[in-house]
Each structure stands twice: as C-alpha cells, then as structure tokens.
Amino acid sequence: MSAIFSGITYGIIGFLWGGPWGAVAGFAIGMGIGLLMDALAPDVPSPGQPQLAELAFPSAVEGLNIPDVLGTTKLSGNIFHYFGNRTVELTQEVEGGKGTGGGEDVVTGYEYYLSWAMGICLGPIDKLHAVYAGDEVVWSGNLSRPISGDYEIISLTGGDLTYQDVDRVWHQSLPYSSLVSQGPHGSSYRYIFSGLYTGRMETTSVLANPFGMVDDFSSRTINSSTLSLYVTNSDTNITRSIGTVNYVNRIWDPVSQLCTVIVDNPLLYTLEPNEYYDYFYIHIDGTETIAWVEPGDERNMGNAYFYFGTSNQTINTKMQGDIANTPAYRYLCYVFFDDNFIGNFNRAPAMKFIVSKFPQLGFNENEIINTYDYNPAHAIWYIQTNHWMAQLPEEYMDEVTFSEVADTLYSEGRGISILFDKQQTALAYMETILDHVGGVMRYSATGDLSEES
Fold first, then answer.
1. What's the domain range around 327?
2. Which among 14, 325, 375, 427 would be 20 to 30 A from 213, CA to CA?
C-alpha cells in the first residue's frame, strides 16, 4: 500500500514538472521509496494507545435509590467504587516485512482490567441464582446466604453455555432422636428436627444446613421423593422401614437451627415392646439440567466477592486498601469484582443479577411459594411493618387473619415476586399486591389491620 500511494504522489509531482514523461518517472521513483517503506514496517495495523483516562461505566449514579426485593427478580447494579484500572498488551509475532526476513512481536490490541463494586439491593437476601455481563451468563447456580460469614467468592466465566440433562440421586438420614415436633402444615404434614449432624461443622461451630448440597433441587425435575421411617428391633438389631410418604419440601432456619420436612401425610406406627424408632430417611431422585462452556470457548472474567447484605457484614479489605475509611455497607447486598477482565475496550460491562429474598416473619411459616415466589400476605405484612417502609408496629397487625390468608395463598400456589425500585407510596405497592390476590385490608373488631382474600 505504501508503494502504491507513494507512486501516485510522486507521479503527480512529476507530471507537474515534466508532463506525461515526468509522471512516469515520478511514479517509478515513488514506487521504489514505497517498497522501502513496506520493508521497514510490518503489515499489522497499529492498535493505538490504551485509553485509561476514558473509562466508561454503564451505571454509576450518585444518590440513586437502593431497591428492595421480595421473591425472585432480575435487577441491575449501580457502581459506587472502582480502582485498579490496568491494561495488558496483546502481541502477535509477524514477519519483519517484505524482503527483510526474521520476525518480531507487534502490539495488536489491549485487554482491560478493573476492580469495582456494585450495589444491588437491600439485604439480607437469601439466594443468588445468576450473574450476567451484558446478555451473557457469566455465573449460574443456587448460592445460599452462609450461616456464618457475610460473603461468598464466585468465579465468573464467559462463553456460550451448553446444556444437558443428567440424573442425580440424593439422600439424607435424620436421627429420630432429633425430632422435636410434628403436626399439620397447611394441607400437608410436617416433621421438625433439631441438632442434626451433617458431617461438617462451620468455623463458629454452628451446624450447617443439612440440605445445603441439594437446596437447588427445586429447579430440577424430581422423578421421585420419599420420606421413610425406620424402626429397629432391640432383640435382633434388625432395622426396617415401617412406612413411606411423599416428601414435598423442606425449610431450614439457620437462626433456630430447626429443619422442617414437609410431607403429604403423616407416618403412623405403634411400636412393639421390643422396638424403638431409629431414623427418618429422605430419598430424592431427579433430573438436573447442568450447563458448561465448551473447551476453547471459555473466557474467565475473574473472581467476585458477593455480599448478601447481612447485619454483621465486614469491610472488604481490598476496597479498604484503596480508600482507608471504606464502610462495611451493612444491609446492602453488593458485589466486589476483584481485578476482573472487562474486555478489549475500556468500559465496565453492564452487570445484572437474579436474586431471591424471603424475609421470615413470625406470624406464619409459609413465606415461600413455588420455590421462587413470596407469599403475598407476608409481602403486605413486610410493607406495613418494615422500618424502610410504612414502619407500623407489629401490634397494629391482626396475626390471625394474616396467617389464615397466608395459608390459603400457600395452598393455592399464588405467590408473587416484586421489585421496589420506584418512588411511590407503600399504599400503592400494597394495592398492586391486593389486586393480584383479590384481597382487601380492613380494621378488625379490636382495631387491628386485618386481611381478607
């Protein structure tokens, strides 16, 4: 290209000095100079200089409202802290040029890296399901809020996902001696256990969730699920199952350390004189859809610290290393991206998150409906009493009517997921929920707020 352009340029100059023959001579001289220039410069375009000063953000707004979540929803984050912007040169070995021989490494582009934090919503949230960079899923799973500690480290990987269904079987033995209560649970039956040993202890000696390894089973197709009661003969030391029922769901309360197992009907059995109850056995057989990135297509972004927005949230030491007075951001669910790859352009990607939040309220236990939704009766109670919203004392609420409506909605499977991200009144949000379930709010005979559906 240099030879052609140089030849044309010198040809024009030759024509102006010597007419047609001058143009021919000028073109020949220009071609010679151009070929020499080609030999000195490899045929690789210059990538320019890295533009560190032109870092762009998709969402970094001061004074933005912090949203709240009930149920499961997808929402964007807002960047509130960043540092450590750096580049890595991309090089390619090319031949030195026409007729020169040899090779050299030439810069063909740049990769950009950044550390930044994004606020997501009010905490504490219960689960993280997915992380997006733009429209691409860079992490997916069913990450539960830890019993002890305030964050989890996740690895973000890009690339096109491939999905496949695989079979998985899970089982758990629950000692009968840990049974603390049993009774009705809506239209089903429940067994409540305490003091379960799960084979591992947290660093604070708090028992781990006995269902931690299968908490995402609800997202799979369950082929069969049963709960069996086993008794042992003290004379023969033979253990046998004396009944099996269909396992429906479970609830793990990390505060009380109680595990509730919900079944479709109770197990009834009268012990013989030489028998004693031994243990319950849960069996779940299902199909799980797993995803992975094809080899060669992966591109790691890096690690991220996901904070669930707990009341005991600690300060991120890496952010504190950048700004000495960095707070712990308690009650804020946020994520810190630790020196993550952001692409071949100096722009932080637009990140989105799918999270679940199911506040546990004392008036009723049926806050979760169909795995991902929140009970509308619980949502009304939350809006009325939460100190972020209407701030009414719980003494103003009629627990009996709210609990009855909550049980009805649970049995009907009428859950909701709602994102509080607009500046509107608590009453407006409540009216939307009441319209969804065909409910009304009234004053009871004692003057308390009651709910009917």
1. 52-160+294-356
2. 375
Map residue 26 onto helix, strand or coil. Answer: helix
Q: pTM here?
A: 0.62
Within a domain: 377: yes
* Pair 73, 121: CB distance under 8 Å: no
**Residue that is last in its domain, among 264, 290, 316:** 290
Claim to verify: residue 182 and residue 285 sit in the same structural domain? yes
* CA pair distance 197, 192, nearest whole angstrom: 14
Classify each residue of 136-168 as buried b or exposed e, where b means 16 or more C-beta atoms within 10 Å of its C-beta: ebbbeeebbbbbeebbeebebbbbebeeeeeee
In a domain, 12, yes or no: no
Alpha-carbon distance of 409 to 402, in angstroms, equals 11
Exposure class string for 392-408: b at 16+ Cβ within 10 A, else e: beeeebbbebbbbbbbb
**Phi/psi zone of residue 267: left (φ > 0), alpha (ψ -120 to 50 degrees), beta?**
beta
Residues 142 and 200 in one domain: no
Shared domain for 269 and 310, answered yes or no, is no
Tokens of 356: 């679940």
Give tens-digit pLDDT for 227-284: 999 999 999 999 999 999 999 888 877 667 788 899 999 998 999 999 999 999 999 8
As a whole number of angstroms, the distance between CA 74 and CA 356 comes to: 9
Residues 390-440 pLDDT 10s: 888 888 898 989 999 999 999 999 999 999 988 788 888 888 899 888 888
Per-position DSSP letters for 349-381, written without gaps between them = --EEEEEEE----TT-S--EETTTEE-HHHHHH
* 86 and 136 both lie in a single domain: yes
Residue owning tokens 């509080």: 420
Q: Among 259, 261, 267, 265, which residue's Cα sits nearest to residue 249?
A: 261
CB 125 within 8 A of CB 69: yes
Examine residue 11 and state whether it is found in any structural domain, yes or no.
no
Q: How many domains does the chain have?
A: 3
**Sequence-distant (≥ 6) Cβ neighbours of residue 189 within 8 angstroms:** 182, 183, 245, 262, 263, 264, 265, 266
- 364 shares its domain with 445: yes
Q: Same domain, yes or no, for 243 and 232? A: yes
